[in-house]
Amino acid sequence: MPRIAYFGPQGTFTEQAARAFATNGSDELVPVATVPEALAAVRAEKADAACVPLESSVQGSVPDTMDGLAVDEPLVAVGEQVIPIRFTVLTRPGMARHEIRTVASHPHALGQVSRWLAENLPSAAPVAATSTAAAAVDVTEGRYDAAVTAPVAAEHYPLDVLATDLADVRDAVTRFLLLRRPGPVRPPTGADRTSLIVEPDSFRTGSLAELLTELAECGINLSRIESRPKRGRLGEYRFYLDFDGHIAERRVGDALAALYRRCREVRFLGSYPNADASMAVVPPNNTDQAYADADAWLDGVRSGRSA
Ligand SMILES: O=C(O)C(=O)C[C@]1(C(=O)O)C=C[C@@H](O)C=C1
Protein backbone atom coordinates (compact mmCIF):
# COMPACT_ATOMS: atom_id res chain seq x y z
CA MET A 1 0.00 0.00 0.00
CA PRO A 2 1.64 3.33 -1.03
CA ARG A 3 2.37 5.50 2.01
CA ILE A 4 2.21 9.31 1.77
CA ALA A 5 3.85 11.10 4.71
CA TYR A 6 2.36 14.58 5.18
CA PHE A 7 3.07 17.59 7.38
CA GLY A 8 0.55 16.98 10.16
CA PRO A 9 -0.85 16.17 12.62
CA GLN A 10 -4.32 15.31 11.30
CA GLY A 11 -6.28 18.35 10.19
CA THR A 12 -3.62 20.50 8.46
CA PHE A 13 -4.06 22.15 5.08
CA THR A 14 -1.29 19.79 4.00
CA GLU A 15 -3.56 16.84 4.83
CA GLN A 16 -6.16 18.39 2.54
CA ALA A 17 -3.54 18.55 -0.24
CA ALA A 18 -2.39 14.98 0.48
CA ARG A 19 -6.00 13.79 0.11
CA ALA A 20 -6.19 15.49 -3.26
CA PHE A 21 -3.00 13.66 -4.33
CA ALA A 22 -4.20 10.31 -3.00
CA THR A 23 -6.32 9.40 -5.99
CA ASN A 24 -5.57 5.73 -5.45
CA GLY A 25 -8.00 4.38 -2.81
CA SER A 26 -5.28 2.23 -1.28
CA ASP A 27 -2.93 5.17 -0.45
CA GLU A 28 -2.17 5.38 3.26
CA LEU A 29 -1.81 8.94 4.63
CA VAL A 30 0.71 9.14 7.46
CA PRO A 31 0.91 12.38 9.50
CA VAL A 32 4.35 13.48 10.73
CA ALA A 33 5.18 16.46 12.94
CA THR A 34 7.43 18.54 10.67
CA VAL A 35 8.37 19.09 7.02
CA PRO A 36 11.94 17.75 7.57
CA GLU A 37 10.40 14.56 9.03
CA ALA A 38 8.19 14.11 5.97
CA LEU A 39 11.20 14.46 3.65
CA ALA A 40 13.35 12.17 5.82
CA ALA A 41 10.65 9.46 5.78
CA VAL A 42 10.85 9.30 1.97
CA ARG A 43 14.66 9.37 1.89
CA ALA A 44 14.75 6.54 4.47
CA GLU A 45 12.18 4.56 2.41
CA LYS A 46 9.72 4.62 5.32
CA ALA A 47 7.24 6.38 3.01
CA ASP A 48 6.78 6.33 -0.76
CA ALA A 49 5.98 10.03 -1.05
CA ALA A 50 5.84 13.23 1.02
CA CYS A 51 3.24 15.98 0.77
CA VAL A 52 4.59 19.35 1.95
CA PRO A 53 3.69 23.05 1.56
CA LEU A 54 6.02 24.98 -0.77
CA GLU A 55 4.71 28.54 -1.00
CA SER A 56 1.84 30.75 0.08
CA SER A 57 0.57 33.51 -2.19
CA VAL A 58 0.51 35.75 0.90
CA GLN A 59 3.43 34.61 3.10
CA GLY A 60 5.87 33.47 0.40
CA SER A 61 7.94 30.30 0.46
CA VAL A 62 8.08 27.75 3.28
CA PRO A 63 11.73 27.77 4.43
CA ASP A 64 11.71 24.19 5.79
CA THR A 65 10.65 22.86 2.41
CA MET A 66 13.01 25.06 0.40
CA ASP A 67 16.03 24.19 2.54
CA GLY A 68 15.08 20.51 2.85
CA LEU A 69 14.98 20.12 -0.94
CA ALA A 70 18.48 21.55 -1.39
CA VAL A 71 20.37 19.13 0.87
CA ASP A 72 20.72 15.37 1.47
CA GLU A 73 19.55 12.82 -1.10
CA PRO A 74 17.64 14.49 -3.96
CA LEU A 75 13.84 14.23 -4.06
CA VAL A 76 11.70 15.06 -7.08
CA ALA A 77 8.19 16.49 -7.35
CA VAL A 78 5.67 14.34 -9.21
CA GLY A 79 2.68 16.64 -8.68
CA GLU A 80 1.46 19.95 -7.24
CA GLN A 81 -1.81 21.12 -5.69
CA VAL A 82 -2.88 24.73 -5.18
CA ILE A 83 -5.41 25.00 -2.37
CA PRO A 84 -7.53 28.05 -1.40
CA ILE A 85 -6.77 29.05 2.18
CA ARG A 86 -9.62 30.10 4.51
CA PHE A 87 -9.19 29.73 8.25
CA THR A 88 -11.34 28.59 11.16
CA VAL A 89 -10.79 29.66 14.79
CA LEU A 90 -11.29 26.88 17.34
CA THR A 91 -11.47 27.46 21.11
CA ARG A 92 -11.53 25.42 24.28
CA PRO A 93 -15.12 24.21 24.80
CA GLY A 94 -17.30 26.74 26.57
CA MET A 95 -14.73 29.53 26.47
CA ALA A 96 -16.16 33.03 25.93
CA ARG A 97 -14.48 35.33 23.39
CA HIS A 98 -13.36 37.85 26.06
CA GLU A 99 -11.62 35.04 28.03
CA ILE A 100 -9.25 34.15 25.18
CA ARG A 101 -5.71 35.19 26.15
CA THR A 102 -3.62 33.11 23.69
CA VAL A 103 -4.19 32.13 20.07
CA ALA A 104 -1.83 29.60 18.51
CA SER A 105 -1.08 28.63 14.90
CA HIS A 106 1.56 28.15 12.23
CA PRO A 107 3.29 31.52 11.69
CA HIS A 108 2.04 31.55 8.08
CA ALA A 109 -1.53 31.20 9.32
CA LEU A 110 -1.18 33.89 12.02
CA GLY A 111 0.23 36.21 9.34
CA GLN A 112 -2.82 35.62 7.14
CA VAL A 113 -5.40 36.55 9.80
CA SER A 114 -3.48 39.23 11.72
CA ARG A 115 -6.04 41.94 10.84
CA TRP A 116 -8.94 39.74 11.95
CA LEU A 117 -7.13 38.90 15.22
CA ALA A 118 -6.38 42.57 15.93
CA GLU A 119 -10.04 43.51 15.39
CA ASN A 120 -11.73 40.51 17.03
CA LEU A 121 -9.33 39.12 19.67
CA PRO A 122 -7.26 42.21 20.56
CA SER A 123 -6.22 40.92 23.99
CA ALA A 124 -5.12 37.46 22.76
CA ALA A 125 -1.36 36.96 22.32
CA PRO A 126 -0.41 35.11 19.11
CA VAL A 127 1.77 32.02 19.73
CA ALA A 128 3.68 30.09 17.05
CA ALA A 129 2.91 26.37 16.70
CA THR A 130 4.54 23.87 14.30
CA SER A 131 1.37 23.65 12.18
CA THR A 132 -2.26 24.79 12.30
CA ALA A 133 -3.36 21.34 13.49
CA ALA A 134 -0.55 21.18 16.10
CA ALA A 135 -2.12 24.39 17.47
CA ALA A 136 -5.49 22.60 17.70
CA VAL A 137 -3.77 19.80 19.66
CA ASP A 138 -2.24 22.44 21.97
CA VAL A 139 -5.70 23.90 22.63
CA THR A 140 -7.24 20.44 23.16
CA GLU A 141 -4.53 19.69 25.73
CA GLY A 142 -5.09 23.02 27.48
CA ARG A 143 -1.83 24.81 26.61
CA TYR A 144 -3.51 27.67 24.70
CA ASP A 145 -7.03 29.09 24.49
CA ALA A 146 -7.64 29.25 20.73
CA ALA A 147 -6.16 27.99 17.45
CA VAL A 148 -6.26 29.29 13.87
CA THR A 149 -6.76 26.16 11.77
CA ALA A 150 -7.83 24.62 8.50
CA PRO A 151 -11.63 24.06 8.36
CA VAL A 152 -11.12 20.27 8.46
CA ALA A 153 -9.47 20.49 11.92
CA ALA A 154 -12.93 21.13 13.43
CA GLU A 155 -13.81 17.52 12.51
CA HIS A 156 -10.75 16.06 14.26
CA TYR A 157 -10.59 17.94 17.58
CA PRO A 158 -13.27 18.35 20.30
CA LEU A 159 -13.20 22.16 20.22
CA ASP A 160 -15.76 24.94 19.73
CA VAL A 161 -15.89 26.83 16.44
CA LEU A 162 -15.58 30.59 17.10
CA ALA A 163 -15.30 31.80 13.48
CA THR A 164 -15.00 30.38 9.96
CA ASP A 165 -14.04 31.50 6.46
CA LEU A 166 -11.36 33.97 7.62
CA ALA A 167 -8.65 35.43 5.41
CA ASP A 168 -7.19 38.94 5.44
CA VAL A 169 -6.47 38.32 1.73
CA ARG A 170 -9.55 36.78 0.17
CA ASP A 171 -7.94 34.90 -2.71
CA ALA A 172 -5.03 33.43 -0.71
CA VAL A 173 -3.75 30.06 -1.93
CA THR A 174 -0.93 27.73 -0.91
CA ARG A 175 0.97 25.46 -3.28
CA PHE A 176 1.88 21.95 -2.14
CA LEU A 177 4.22 19.37 -3.71
CA LEU A 178 4.12 15.59 -3.76
CA LEU A 179 7.74 14.42 -3.59
CA ARG A 180 9.29 11.01 -4.29
CA ARG A 181 12.71 9.44 -4.58
CA PRO A 182 14.06 10.00 -8.13
CA GLY A 183 12.90 7.49 -10.77
CA PRO A 184 12.03 7.56 -14.47
CA VAL A 185 10.27 10.87 -15.15
CA ARG A 186 6.61 10.48 -16.15
CA PRO A 187 5.83 11.50 -19.75
CA PRO A 188 4.87 15.11 -20.52
CA THR A 189 1.21 16.20 -20.50
CA GLY A 190 1.81 19.51 -22.36
CA ALA A 191 0.82 21.39 -19.17
CA ASP A 192 3.95 20.71 -17.12
CA ARG A 193 6.19 22.57 -14.77
CA THR A 194 9.88 21.90 -14.16
CA SER A 195 11.62 22.88 -10.93
CA LEU A 196 15.35 23.22 -10.31
CA ILE A 197 17.87 24.49 -7.80
CA VAL A 198 20.97 26.06 -9.34
CA GLU A 199 24.09 27.46 -7.82
CA PRO A 200 25.74 29.90 -10.21
CA ASP A 201 29.28 31.09 -9.76
CA SER A 202 28.43 33.93 -7.38
CA PHE A 203 31.76 35.70 -7.79
CA ARG A 204 31.60 36.18 -11.56
CA THR A 205 29.89 39.27 -12.98
CA GLY A 206 26.77 38.42 -14.96
CA SER A 207 26.62 34.71 -14.04
CA LEU A 208 22.93 34.83 -13.07
CA ALA A 209 22.05 36.87 -16.17
CA GLU A 210 23.80 34.23 -18.32
CA LEU A 211 21.62 31.46 -16.85
CA LEU A 212 18.43 33.41 -17.47
CA THR A 213 19.55 34.15 -21.04
CA GLU A 214 20.05 30.40 -21.65
CA LEU A 215 16.44 29.81 -20.58
CA ALA A 216 15.12 32.68 -22.70
CA GLU A 217 17.00 31.44 -25.78
CA CYS A 218 15.42 28.01 -25.38
CA GLY A 219 11.96 29.68 -25.34
CA ILE A 220 11.36 28.87 -21.68
CA ASN A 221 8.90 30.88 -19.59
CA LEU A 222 10.17 31.28 -16.02
CA SER A 223 7.30 31.33 -13.49
CA ARG A 224 9.33 31.75 -10.28
CA ILE A 225 12.86 32.60 -9.22
CA GLU A 226 13.84 32.79 -5.58
CA SER A 227 17.12 32.74 -3.72
CA ARG A 228 17.99 31.19 -0.36
CA PRO A 229 21.29 31.59 1.47
CA LYS A 230 23.55 28.54 1.47
CA ARG A 231 24.09 29.04 5.22
CA GLY A 232 27.87 28.94 4.95
CA ARG A 233 29.40 32.24 4.02
CA LEU A 234 27.43 35.46 3.58
CA GLY A 235 26.83 36.20 -0.11
CA GLU A 236 26.47 32.58 -1.32
CA TYR A 237 23.02 31.70 -2.60
CA ARG A 238 21.07 28.96 -4.30
CA PHE A 239 18.41 29.94 -6.83
CA TYR A 240 15.13 28.07 -7.09
CA LEU A 241 13.64 28.15 -10.56
CA ASP A 242 10.20 27.03 -11.77
CA PHE A 243 9.36 27.17 -15.46
CA ASP A 244 6.79 25.92 -17.96
CA GLY A 245 7.85 22.76 -19.78
CA HIS A 246 9.03 19.18 -19.27
CA ILE A 247 12.51 17.66 -19.26
CA ALA A 248 11.47 15.31 -22.10
CA GLU A 249 11.16 18.35 -24.41
CA ARG A 250 14.28 19.15 -26.41
CA ARG A 251 14.23 22.88 -25.52
CA VAL A 252 14.10 22.03 -21.80
CA GLY A 253 16.80 19.36 -22.12
CA ASP A 254 19.07 21.81 -23.97
CA ALA A 255 18.47 24.50 -21.34
CA LEU A 256 19.22 22.12 -18.47
CA ALA A 257 22.42 20.97 -20.18
CA ALA A 258 23.46 24.61 -20.65
CA LEU A 259 22.80 25.38 -16.97
CA TYR A 260 24.76 22.26 -15.97
CA ARG A 261 27.75 23.47 -18.01
CA ARG A 262 27.60 26.92 -16.41
CA CYS A 263 26.75 26.16 -12.76
CA ARG A 264 28.62 24.84 -9.77
CA GLU A 265 25.62 22.68 -9.01
CA VAL A 266 22.24 21.88 -10.58
CA ARG A 267 19.61 19.87 -8.73
CA PHE A 268 16.61 18.64 -10.73
CA LEU A 269 13.43 18.89 -8.64
CA GLY A 270 11.08 17.28 -11.15
CA SER A 271 8.90 17.79 -14.24
CA TYR A 272 5.24 17.35 -13.25
CA PRO A 273 1.75 18.44 -14.33
CA ASN A 274 1.00 22.00 -13.21
CA ALA A 275 -2.00 22.50 -10.94
CA ASP A 276 -4.08 24.66 -13.29
CA ALA A 277 -3.46 22.44 -16.35
CA SER A 278 -2.34 25.49 -18.38
CA MET A 279 -0.63 24.42 -21.61
CA ALA A 280 2.91 25.69 -22.21
CA VAL A 281 3.30 28.16 -25.07
CA VAL A 282 6.30 26.98 -27.11
CA PRO A 283 7.82 29.49 -29.57
CA PRO A 284 7.85 28.04 -33.13
CA ASN A 285 11.66 27.89 -33.24
CA ASN A 286 11.82 25.89 -29.96
CA THR A 287 9.44 23.03 -30.77
CA ASP A 288 10.87 19.48 -30.80
CA GLN A 289 10.22 19.49 -34.58
CA ALA A 290 12.28 22.68 -35.05
CA TYR A 291 15.22 21.07 -33.21
CA ALA A 292 14.83 17.81 -35.22
CA ASP A 293 14.85 19.77 -38.51
CA ALA A 294 17.98 21.64 -37.43
CA ASP A 295 19.68 18.34 -36.43
CA ALA A 296 18.83 16.80 -39.82
CA TRP A 297 20.25 19.83 -41.63
CA LEU A 298 23.44 19.71 -39.53
CA ASP A 299 23.90 15.97 -40.18
CA GLY A 300 23.49 16.64 -43.87
CA VAL A 301 26.11 19.36 -43.88
CA ARG A 302 28.56 17.27 -41.82
CA SER A 303 28.17 14.22 -44.04
CA GLY A 304 28.32 16.20 -47.28
CA ARG A 305 24.76 15.29 -48.29
CA SER A 306 23.70 18.96 -48.31
CA ALA A 307 25.20 22.40 -47.89
O1 LIG B 1 -0.18 24.19 9.18
C1 LIG B 1 -0.80 23.79 8.18
O2 LIG B 1 -2.00 23.50 8.18
C2 LIG B 1 -0.09 23.68 6.92
O3 LIG B 1 -0.47 22.88 6.11
C3 LIG B 1 1.07 24.60 6.67
C4 LIG B 1 0.70 25.94 6.06
C5 LIG B 1 1.99 26.65 5.55
O4 LIG B 1 3.08 26.14 5.68
O5 LIG B 1 1.85 27.73 4.98
C6 LIG B 1 -0.17 25.73 4.88
C7 LIG B 1 -1.13 26.61 4.52
C8 LIG B 1 -1.43 27.81 5.31
O6 LIG B 1 -0.85 28.89 4.59
C9 LIG B 1 -0.85 27.76 6.67
C10 LIG B 1 0.05 26.83 7.02
TrEMBL record:
The record marks 174 as: Essential for prephenate dehydratase activity. It is an enzyme of class 4 (lyase). It holds the Pfam family PDT. GO terms for biological process: L-phenylalanine biosynthetic process. Residues 196-273 form the ACT domain. It catalyses: prephenate + H(+) = 3-phenylpyruvate + CO2 + H2O. Residues 3-181 form the Prephenate dehydratase domain. Keywords: Amino-acid biosynthesis, Aromatic amino acid biosynthesis, Lyase, Phenylalanine biosynthesis. The keyword Lyase applies. GO terms for molecular function: prephenate dehydratase activity. One of its GO terms (cellular component) is cytoplasm. InterPro entries: ACT-like_dom_sf (IPR045865), ACT_dom (IPR002912), Chor_mutase/pphenate_deHydtase (IPR008242), Preph_deHydtase (IPR001086), Preph_deHydtase_CS (IPR018528). The keyword Lyase applies. Pathway: Amino-acid biosynthesis; L-phenylalanine biosynthesis; phenylpyruvate from prephenate: step 1/1. This is Prephenate dehydratase. It comes from Herbihabitans rhizosphaerae. The gene is pheA.
